[in-house]
Amino acid sequence: MRPDVEKEHASPSVRSLTQSSSDQEAVDSPRQSKYQRWARCIKGLETQGIEPVPVEDRMKANAASYFHMLLMWFSMGMALNNIVVGSIGTLVMHLSFLDAALCAIFGNLLGNVFVGYMSTWGPESGNRTLIVARYFMGYYPSMICVVLNVLTNLGYGMINAMVGGQLLSKVSGGNVSVVLGIVIVSLASLVVATLGMRIFHVYERYAWFPQLIVLCILAGSAGPQFDFQTSSVGSLREVNTKRAAFFSMCLSVSLAWVPLAADYYVYHPPTTSRWKTWSATTAGGSLSMILTILLGVGLGSGVSNTPKWASLYDGTPGSLLMAGYDRLGVFGKICAVINVVAVVSNNAPGAYSMAMNFQMLGEMWRKIPRPVFTVFSTAVYMSCAIGGRNFLYQIFKNFLPLIGYWVVIWFTISVEEDVLFKRCRGYDWSVWNNRDKLPVGIAATFAFIVGWAGAIVGMNQAYYKGPVAQAVGESCDLGIWLGMGFAGLAFPAMRVVELKVIGR
């Protein structure tokens, strides 16, 4: 058999993939087709739904593509909410600068390794991340992750809007209320998310530059007040448990991107190098997240060390940032306004992917145009942000670990399915919406439940403390690690049985 013929038989052809997607859309999505015809009148507006992007509609592969990947993740990760997370380590947990910084660096590096792995599925399949999840967990079980990811992105959208709203209010001296600031940030994110992936790529390609400049200015202005001397507060056991908790929190920051990672590469061709995609994604996300979290660690340490900062800090992230810019006067306020752009850079990707997630819930949902879900989700997280604007630190501490629990359980199952069971057999990307050819998902569902059991017994949160966490020590949250371990042990054996009994 000729090599080209053999290759054609080994994987679905471009023609079959394109025809499958278009036929499915024509039969099942008449409203979506009407939207697409209308949307094509607006230059640059994305009309693609959750269907795989045909190979002929993707970008051409070139060396600059990987640099653009790095810049995109560098831009998305340079977010103010990361500064808030960093400040929790020193300001709330009372860790030393060194302890908090090490947790931030290694926690983010590990999480972005996971993000880089998951991002490689975008060019290979042309599918969004949680469509690829159907090949790992099955059609219906993957919807559990879809719902959880919608809730995750609603939570992050709420947090981003609150941070941006508080900062705008502080910059204006109270002339812009926090509520109005939240509305402004939410609507700006809505516009970018509605325009779609092509405009989004252009925006993120350049949004990083002014952000990097003002963050360097912030570091230069506030750096002399950072406290590098004070030790972590508490006994050795208490400090170790706080280190573990903050490490997990920093890990969760980057883990939140794992269920979205492939979404932003579906327009890259399947010839895109997996190794280079992983490297660019991991490097871009790690550099920006570590930079912003370390700034937060330093700002948090300076509050107790600098009387002027202590007087300016009123318990909100906006006041913490303005304390860092205090020496710069009006110029510092201008820099803070530019920081708000970073909120949009971080918020728009989640809003975009969230709309896609809604369409993954079934055929009825696919018929609804993507912008409808974008508007709906923006209204929901904007309303929640307005209601919870005075409780940001509490929301962060309680919300971030929950993201880490479910993402790391799902990621563990996905990696094991790929490495142990699918890698040698390959993937037929044309059956992305055919539940009769996708895995049934019994083993994945079982492992997901077992993983959650592990997370629950190891979690240590304000609303519940698991027996393992209580036995180890106060403030020690082992939910991520026990969830990963329980799921990793439960899945392979059950998957072997599932394949022997059911065959898929």
Automatic annotation (TrEMBL):
GO MF annotation list: transmembrane transporter activity
Listed Gene3D superfamilies: Hydantoin permease
Compositionally biased intervals (Polar residues): 13-32
GO cellular component terms, semicolon-separated: fungal-type vacuole membrane; plasma membrane
Transmembrane among keywords: yes
Membrane protein topology class: Multi-pass membrane protein
Subcellular location, principal: membrane
Region (Disordered): 1-32
Keyword Cell membrane: no
InterPro entries named in the record: Pur-cyt_permease, Pur-cyt_permease_Fcy2/21/22
A Pfam family it matches: Transp_cyt_pur
Keywords: Membrane, Phosphoprotein, Transmembrane, Transmembrane helix, Transport
Ranges of biased composition (kind: Basic and acidic residues): 1-10
Residue spans crossing the bilayer: 66-85, 91-115, 136-156, 176-195, 207-226, 246-266, 278-299, 330-352, 372-393, 399-417, 438-458, 478-497
Subcellular location per the Swiss-Prot or TrEMBL entry: Membrane
GO biological process, one term: nucleobase transport
Family: Belongs to the purine-cytosine permease (2.A.39) family.
PANTHER family: PURINE-CYTOSINE PERMEASE FCY2-RELATED (PTHR31806), PURINE-CYTOSINE TRANSPORTER (EUROFUNG) (PTHR31806:SF16)
Descriptive protein name: Nucleoside transporter
